[in-house]
């Protein structure tokens, strides 16, 4: 019989690095060869593990594990894991490869020391794997300390100041290194006046964060305000073609690198949702991005320029304006006009991180531009870390999308190869050819992400950055092994049962068939079918008494389907080939339209909303049944969140079904209660 785990007394949860996962390594003889700060970090990790579990760090002979740097190595993060002369060996391409090599051994535990271990080559697919924090230095009157943050306050900032104790930031860097992340952006893309000073008189704060995360190979990026020269009072204009403005950015950037030599680069949101940009001066996004690129180029660093640009003041009566089209309309024609250290950062879907969207056509339309795919780890539209929603199956669908047909290379392959004709390696110093970015989801909550099971999304995004083709279920199993060491089969089975299909469960009881939104304006939590329907935000479903959905076809709608290459343009255009799960994203159809599944649209809405809420109801006793196998604090937090998820799922079920029953007048053919 399994003993009840002792209460987790640590003030901060260990996430996927509890001390016990180092047992296999720490009970052996381990030597680390290599020079520099990263090698020193690995030696310190090994020494701590050996001190805890009785092993020997830095033995003079015959180690069981050797972590070393290959002679003449190029310095990448890659490494070889294998066996040599009776020992397990991590042969790193450079010092940067020692850390991921160490954590690969930790992940495998005893299996890393199997005499039959075959040689394996490990190399990250995406060169830059960055988490963008939407943390505000100064508390925003509407968005608070962390915009779209669901786990408390910022781990970096408090009350307009840098936190005095950065030990938790260092612990965070350690977690990120163990998952595969190698960079963070420390402030919100919506850069306020106060945050603009991070470039100048608050630069020391950024340097302090960089010092805290540097031992784990994490580089710091900063979101910058395009109008910084004006806001800081130095110039009357921010025109990107003005020589004085270009000199300002060059000298400011020189000071940044003089203070932080390994600074990662800039992130920019411009001409979007009220943020300033080059449109003010009649310039293009290429003009704006290239100005910042010129300032960063001498330092071998990139600017990431977000493609999230659209009209958020559109007339809801005008069906010709389509928010989904906006990014492609703004950027596709600029392909080939961006400097080689500009990375155009594109949300994975054309709208805004909805539960179900097609892949953004911008990611398919700019072969001569460095592109980054942007994911959202923070669960803004997927339950806000109050609902269990394991997102890697969605992300894998994006990364595995085949842009020109079922046998073509995947989107991940295209992105990691870089622009057509470019070197697949580093284009300009530290400017990588493959970039995966994600909006972060941590806060100062004890469990990092508020919901303990939401930690799996944070872990998984780094793992997919290394290996985008990896099975999400295998990543989840890996996370379970680390977070719940020696989990008995019953606990492991329960976690898979709760989490494997949780994204699809969430989709069942929320917005159907790719229509999106239907959330309460502002905070985006809970159902509100018409909440955005008559607003200027461009997020409509156009439900009336006859049907629902947005006509985005070339033949009769906004023409959005034409932004895709064949065969996707044809598949999405035609009702006969459009996938059911995206039907209402691309088409306006009657409620009686028959899906490929054989049911009508309206019956599908009823069935899925009843099924989704029922599935959440079943989750609660399933979790209760493993109470003795999980520490009480973790179990209690998950149970509390599941209770809220159950309440919310029933609210979604009742509001969505009632709305469409009243709108359509079509009864549920199963005779269930609809209010």
UniProtKB/TrEMBL annotation:
Query: GO biological process: what's one of them?
Result: xylan catabolic process
Which residues belong to any copy of the Glycosyl hydrolase family 67 C-terminal domain?
Answer: 449-672
What Pfam families does UniProt report for this protein, alphabetically? Glyco_hydro_67C, Glyco_hydro_67M
Q: Which GO terms describe its cellular component?
A: extracellular region
Q: Which InterPro entries match?
A: A-glucoronidase_C_sf, GH, Glyco_hydro_67_C, Glyco_hydro_67_cat
The record's section on SUPFAM superfamilies has:
(Trans)glycosidases (SSF51445)
Question: What Gene3D superfamilies does the database record attribute to this sequence?
Answer: Alpha-glucuronidase, C-terminal domain, Glycosidases
Q: Which residues form the Glycosyl hydrolase family 67 catalytic domain?
A: 120-448
One Gene Ontology term of the molecular function aspect: xylan alpha-1,2-glucuronosidase activity
Q: What is this protein called?
A: Alpha-glucuronidase
Its taxonomic placement starts with: Bacteria, Bacillati, Actinomycetota, Actinomycetes, Micromonosporales
């Amino acid at each position: 019989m399994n003993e009840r785990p002792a209460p987790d007394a640590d003030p901060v949860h260990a996430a996927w690095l509890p001390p016990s996962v180092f047992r296999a390594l720490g009970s052996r003889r381990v030597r680390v060869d290599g020079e520099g700060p990263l090698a020193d970090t690995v030696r310190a990790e090994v020494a701590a593990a050996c001190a805890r579990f009785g092993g020997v760090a830095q033995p003079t002979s015959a180690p069981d594990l050797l972590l070393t740097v290959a002679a003449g190595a190029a310095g990448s993060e890659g490494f070889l894991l294998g066996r040599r002369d009776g020992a397990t060996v991590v042969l790193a391409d450079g010092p940067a490869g020692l850390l991921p090599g160490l954590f690969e051994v930790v992940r495998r535990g005893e299996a890393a020391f199997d005499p039959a271990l075959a040689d394996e080559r490990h190399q990250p697919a995406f060169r830059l794997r960055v988490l963008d924090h939407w943390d505000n230095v100064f508390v925003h009157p509407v968005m608070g300390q962390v915009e779209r943050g669901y786990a408390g306050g910022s781990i970096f900032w408090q009350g307009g100041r840098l936190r005095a104790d950065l030990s938790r930031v260092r612990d965070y860097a350690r977690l990120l290194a163990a998952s595969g992340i190698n960079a963070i952006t420390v402030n919100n893309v919506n850069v306020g006046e106060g945050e603009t000073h991070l470039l100048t008189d608050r630069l020391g704060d950024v340097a302090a964060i960089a010092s805290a995360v540097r031992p784990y190979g994490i580089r710091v990026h900063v979101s910058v305000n395009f109008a910084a020269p004006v806001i800081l009072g130095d110039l009357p204009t921010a025109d990107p073609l003005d020589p004085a403005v270009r000199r300002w950015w060059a000298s400011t950037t020189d000071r940044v690198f003089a203070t932080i030599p390994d600074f990662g680069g800039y992130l920019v949101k411009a001409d979007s949702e009220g943020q300033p940009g080059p449109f003010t001066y009649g310039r293009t996004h290429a003009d704006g991005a290239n100005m910042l690129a010129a300032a960063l180029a001498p330092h071998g660093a990139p600017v990431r320029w977000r493609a999230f640009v659209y009209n958020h003041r559109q007339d809801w009566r005008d069906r010709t304006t389509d928010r989904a089209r906006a990014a492609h309309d703004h950027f596709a024609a600029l392909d080939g006009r961006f400097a080689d250290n500009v990375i155009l950062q594109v949300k994975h879907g054309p709208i805004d991180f909805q539960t179900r969207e097609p892949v953004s056509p911008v990611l398919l339309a700019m072969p001569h531009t460095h592109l980054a795919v942007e994911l959202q780890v923070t669960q803004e539209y997927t339950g806000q870390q109050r609902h269990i929603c394991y997102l890697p199956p969605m992300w894998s669908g994006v990364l595995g999308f085949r842009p020109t047909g079922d046998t073509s290379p995947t989107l991940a392959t295209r992105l990691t190869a870089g622009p057509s004709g470019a070197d697949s390696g580093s284009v300009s110093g530290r400017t990588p050819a493959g970039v995966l970015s994600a909006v972060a989801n941590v806060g100062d909550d004890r469990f990092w992400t508020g919901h303990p099971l939401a930690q799996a999304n944070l872990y998984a995004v780094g793992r997919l950055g290394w290996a985008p083709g990896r099975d999400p279920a295998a990543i989840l199993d890996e996370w379970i092994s680390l977070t719940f060491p020696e989990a008995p089969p019953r606990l492991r089975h329960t976690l898979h049962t709760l989490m494997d299909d949780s994204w699809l469960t969430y989709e069942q009881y929320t917005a159907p068939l790719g229509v999106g939104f239907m959330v309460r304006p502002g905070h985006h939590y809970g159902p509100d079918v018409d909440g955005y329907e008559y607003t200027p935000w461009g997020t409509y479903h156009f439900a009336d008494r006859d049907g629902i959905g947005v006509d985005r076809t070339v033949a009769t709608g906004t023409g959005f389907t034409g932004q895709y290459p064949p065969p996707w343009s044809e598949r999405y255009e035609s009702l006969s080939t459009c996938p059911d799960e995206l039907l209402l994203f691309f088409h306006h159809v009657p409620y009686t339209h028959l899906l490929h599944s054989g049911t009508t649209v309206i019956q599908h809405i009823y069935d899925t909303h009843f099924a989704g809420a029922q599935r959440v109801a079943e989750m609660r006793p399933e979790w209760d049944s493993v109470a003795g196998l999980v520490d009480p604090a973790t179990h209690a937090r998950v149970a509390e969140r599941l209770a809220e998820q159950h309440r919310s799922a029933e609210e979604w079920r009742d509001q969505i079904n009632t709305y469409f029953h009243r709108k359509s007048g079509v009864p549920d053919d199963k005779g269930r209660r609809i209010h």
